[in-house]
Amino acid sequence: MNRTDSGHAPGHDHGHTVAGWTGTGMALAGSVAAGGSMVAAWYPGLALGAGLVALSACTTWVLHLAGWGKPGGPRPPVERGWRVRDRSAAQGHPGCVGCRLAGRGRRTAAPAATTSAAGTPAVAPAAAAATDGVLPGAGVYGERSAETEAAL
């Protein structure tokens, strides 16, 4: 099997990142603390452990947004090191829920309809309906509606 410079098979990306390792370490420590506190019946420790687990999710998200995470899918071999910063994080990763929650990677809405000199809308109603990348007449999973089929 051919190996890349990082020692991995081509096209293989474990996804090890600073955000991933930090979040995993914090969640593991919080789980151990909560579990040990449960066994010892120390309820403040149980709450602290659960809080650390919640904090680990927030920390991972913030590090991902700062560029210490990775986009979905395999990365190029030169970017597979766990300490390589992702420069595309500022624009948001396509299909990334964390980036969408932060308001990154969203498409802008269609421009507002303006009126022409004759007082009629300059934007056709079908074009005005196409907002956020949705095609006019497209149903669930990109299926065409009956109106679209009749027009074709």
Characterize the structure shown.
This protein has 152 residues and is mainly alpha-helical. Helix content is 43%, strand content 0%. The protein has five helices and no strands. The chain is elongated and about 50 Å long.
Features:
single chain, 152 residues, mainly alpha
Structure, briefly:
The chain is an all-alpha fold and 152 residues long.
Write the layout of secondary structure elements.
Layout: H1 18-40, H2 43-68, H3 97-101, H4 125-129, H5 146-151
Helix pairs in contact: 1-2
What is the helix tally? 5
Structural class, by secondary structure, is: mainly alpha
Q: What overall form do the CA principal axes indicate? A: elongated
Amount of beta strand: under 5%
Q: Which range best describes the helical content: under 10%, 10-25%, 25-40%, 40-55%, 55-70% or over 70%?
A: 40-55%
Secondary-structure element pattern, one letter each: HHHHH
Number of strands: 0
pLDDT < 50 stretches: 124-144
Report how far the terminal alpha carbons are from each other: 51 Å
